[in-house]
Amino acid sequence: MALPNNPGNGDRKRGRPRAFAEKTEQNTIKALDRALVVLSELARVESASLSELAQSLGESPATVYRVLTTFALHGMVESDERAQTWQIGPDAFLIGSVFLRRTSLVDRSRPILRQLMEDSGETANLGVEKDGSVLFLSQVETSAPIRAFFPPGTLSPLHASGIGKVLLAYAGEAYVNRFTAKGLQVFTPHTRADPDALADDLAEVRRRGYAIDDQERNMGMRCIAAPIRNPHGEVVAGISVSGPTSRVSPDQVRELADMVIKAGHAVSAAIGAPAAFGTPYETAAD
């Protein structure tokens, strides 16, 4: 009997059937692919009627209804009979949460986020890059009456986010060029939608070690973010504090930046970053 790793087995990769061929089209279930497109669109819009969802996808209502009904049987979506709308269901969250459990980043950052919130008095956030946006993975809210709110799963544009600008700053010139080539949406008068202005801002982020979202996504809100590095020293996530400009004033930016950088180093160390990136004692550059 041939051993599993015997070259006589054709060096077939484990987890693939014997008939597997390196042709994606031949190994795709079209109906499943279409169904997942429906699920992704519903997740994007959060709530939609059958006709709205069908129209946005360019599919017939009958087709979309069959997909939704099938997903509903498995708890992946659910319907609001009174509003005649569909939403993502609880079992979709349970499946998605497996991703969060697979990585130690979320679990290991949680106590550090909580400490950052207590030290700063503002909401603390954790985010990573996903398809040109910041995907918020975790948040610890302040108890202050006016506060930022980015629930896990929220997406925000990279160029108009503190964490997003941290991720862009260390992503490399080629990635930034591809990102800006698509055009940069303007959200407020403070949004850096000009590629040259954004490039200057990203250079400043690298110089001082933190980014500032100064009312660039929402008027009246300010965010300060710092990088998180993996065991290879690569920036893989960002950590931030967000709050109203009345509390996060220009005079407080330096003090808060030191807190955020310290928290970023602490999370980096917790996930195995080299000591040069993992020390919690470095403070913001002048």
UniProtKB/TrEMBL annotation:
Residues 1-24 are annotated as: Disordered. Residues 29-90 form the HTH iclR-type domain. It comes from the Bacteria. Residues 91-273 form the IclR-ED domain. Signal peptide: none annotated. The keyword ATP-binding does not apply. Keywords: DNA-binding, Transcription, Transcription regulation. This is HTH-type transcriptional regulator BhcR. It comes from Sulfitobacter aestuarii.
